[in-house]
Amino acid sequence: MDQASAPAIVVDKLSKRFGDFAALDDVSFNVGRGEIMGFLGPNGAGKSTLIRVLCGLLRPSSGRAVVAGIDITDDPEAVRRRIGYMSQKFSLYSDLSVVENLRFFGGIYGVSPQTIAERVAFAVEMAGLRGRETALVSELAGGWKQRLALGCAILHQPAVLFLDEPTSGVDPSSRRRFWNLIHDLSADGVSVLVSTHYMDEAEYCMRIAMIAAGRLIALGTPHDLKRQSIGGELVELECDNVGAAIDLVAQMPAVRDVAVFGNSLHLLVDEADSIAPEVCARLAGHGLTGARARRIAPSMEDMFVHLVRSAKSQREEATR
Amino acid sequence: MDDAADSAVEVHGVAKRFGATVAVDALSFSVARGEIFGLVGPDGAGKTTAMRMLASVMTPDAGSIRIDGVDVVKDPAQAKLHVSYMPQRFGLYEDLTVDENIRFYADLFEIPAKEWHERAQRLLAASGMTPFGSRRAGLLSGGMKQKLGLTCALVHAPRVLLLDEPTTGVDPVSRREFWQILYSLRAQGVAMVISTAYLDEAERCDRLALLHQGRIRYCDTPKRLKAGMPGAIIRITAGNPRRLLDVVRTLEGVSGVLLVGDGLHIHVDDAARRLPALLHAMAPAGVQAGDIQRVEPTIEDLFVGLLEDEPQAA
């Protein structure tokens, strides 16, 4: 096998059932070497189940998965030696110091006594923890803990890294710093599968896989996904009295959906450019002057919510 | 907005120290009825401390806080009748059902059964939770727990609602539903103060205060904050964008570069002036004019820029 070009993760028609419940249903995608794949889905969509299957902790009901060149059902132990895993809770020992945590996790991951000092030094450097080696974890702010948890997960030089909502509750500057580290690891050839609920974070990924109710509903680069249809065009409407405007525009047949967003309304319509002036005219006719309407590009979140909802209505259609 | 009678929340010159650490300093802002006010800032900026003082579970060292006209320091018991505080982990009883949790909070506030029952039904219906009344709270998903927490926090019809990072760990679909509930509360005149670390969420607030080292650095609507950001953001869409980093960093007028999954976000002083040079420098790497576009800055761009310009505390 050509190691350089083989995908780091192969997911091939993977299904996992718990009794009658299909947690994963015929999911297929690959993650390339050094690729950062974002993994998005509502709570209960099957994200954690898939990560557990890929870590060799759960056996699939059918289908196949290969991680770092190893079929997960053949040798789950060997898979676990080649992967790193970081959960949203960070799982650090708060009454141990930074270096003590690193040594502890190095031991668990089977890093040899000959290399542990060098790997701990690397992790401290990479995570920007120099000067804080003897600090207790309980004294560290969220962003520091997060980088330490990442350092712990890469001590054994894994080929594949799984990150489960790694930046929950971490502030924006720390988050940017964390993503720079992920991109550094990726440049060194580490493949990363990262689950997140935040769309601004999904933008850091090279490609995104979206799942809902156990099925893959979209796969592509952030740029490509945002250019997909959301079933219409979006108009942003700004006006003084949002509460009064919402009823007036909701009655317009051309307006398929209205959602409040901050001080403005987002309208889902077929053709934004022709409807925007009609909306303003209707509001002016009811005494709401000075309204501004313009076409806006859908956000990744608009895209995501649209896909999840249409997948849901398709399922309901199918079971009717 | 200066008219105190119109303000649901009035914070004036509030300070709080923990030993030598100044957690909050010279904090002043007001929130009108029917306004959603966001507090954003890095870890340790003072967000949670500010929230706790507003909720009158912590006393300020200096300054005054009035909630619905009531001084929370002098009369916390009276202030608590009008305010509701939803901390990051709302205290739900996991072995009680959804209905029992709501009832517990209603009893706590001594709300007559007829009153809270009708209100709870309405709130549960608005969040799609009606079918789950007899489910144990411990068995709810994260998003549903948040919605139940909100329902419990609203059962005594507060005029001011304080939410500390309310949607951490909640998926986008549930988050949207959660915000639609907040907007309907806003339409009823409820004032809200929300702290968040996620700036795509901050953009949903009416006004924002950017908090750093205990002080407010900027306070305005999201739109005006973004419009006031110096310079512009240019996006280059490219496969393997890392290879472009070194070149971009050397260009004149570039003050920051952010590596995203399928491109770069470049902060420049003047988009029109810098675009030609950027295009020229990128051409050898195969980047074409269509791959380069000006994009709107986000609140996060503004925020990170602000923090980078200042000396960092240890």
CATH architectural name of the largest domain in chain B: 3-Layer(aba) Sandwich
Which consecutive residue ranges of chain B, at least 5 long each, have pLDDT under 50?
none
CATH fold field value of the largest domain in chain B: Rossmann fold
* CATH homologous superfamily heading of the largest domain in chain A: P-loop containing nucleotide triphosphate hydrolases
Could you name the CATH topology of the largest domain in chain A? Rossmann fold
For the record, give the distance between the C-alpha atoms at the N and C termini of chain A, rounded to a whole number: 47 Å
Roughly what fraction of the amino acids of chain B lie in strands?
25-35%
Class from helix and strand fractions of chain A = alpha/beta
Q: Classify the beta-strand content of chain A into a percent band.
A: 25-35%
- Under CATH at level 1, the class of the largest domain in chain B stands as Alpha Beta
Number of domains of chain B: 2
In terms of structural class, how would the helical and strand content of chain B be classed? alpha/beta
Uncertain stretches of 5 or more adjacent residues of chain A = none
Main beta-sheet strand count, sense and barrel state of chain A? 6 strands, mixed
Spatial sequence of strands, sheet with the most strands of chain A: 6-7-8-3-9-10
Number of helical segments with 4 or more residues of chain B: 11
Q: Order of strands in the sheet with the most strands of chain B?
A: 6-7-8-3-9-10
| Element pattern of chain A in H and E | EEEHEEHEHHHEHEHEEHEHEEHEH
Describe this structure in words.
The complex is a heterodimer of chains A (320) and B (314). Chain A is of the alpha/beta class. Chain A folds into 2 domains: 9-227, P-loop containing nucleotide triphosphate hydrolases (Rossmann fold), CATH 3.40.50; 233-297, 2-Layer Sandwich (Alpha-Beta Plaits). Chain A contains 11 helices and 14 strands. Chain A has helices at 47-54, 76-81, 98-108, 113-126, 142-153, 172-187, 199-202, 222-227, 242-250, 272-285, 300-319, and strands spanning 9-18, 21-31, 36-40, 62-67, 70-71, 83-86, 160-164, 191-195, 207-212, 215-220, 233-238, 255-261, 264-269, 292-296. In chain A, the strands form 3 sheets. A 6-stranded mixed β-sheet of chain A has the order 6-7-8-3-9-10, sandwiched between helices. In chain A, strands 2-1-4-5 form a 4-stranded antiparallel β-sheet. A 4-stranded antiparallel β-sheet of chain A has the order 12-13-11-14, covered by helices on one side. The longest helix of chain A is centred in the last third of the chain and has 20 residues, at 300-319. The two termini of chain A are 47 Å apart. The mean pLDDT of chain A is 90. Chain B has 314 residues and is α/β, with parallel strands linked by helices. Chain B folds into 2 domains: 4-226, Rossmann fold (3-Layer(aba) Sandwich), CATH 3.40.50; 230-296, Alpha-Beta Plaits (2-Layer Sandwich). Chain B is 34% helix and 28% strand. Chain B has 11 helices and 14 strands. In chain B, strands 6-7-8-3-9-10 form a 6-stranded mixed β-sheet, with helices on both faces. Chain B has a 4-stranded antiparallel β-sheet with strand order 2-1-4-5. Chain B has a 4-stranded antiparallel β-sheet with strand order 12-13-11-14, with helices on one face. In chain B, β12 and β13 form a beta hairpin. The mean pLDDT of chain B is 88. At the A-B interface, β3, α6, α7, β12 and α11 of A face α6, β12 and α11 of B.
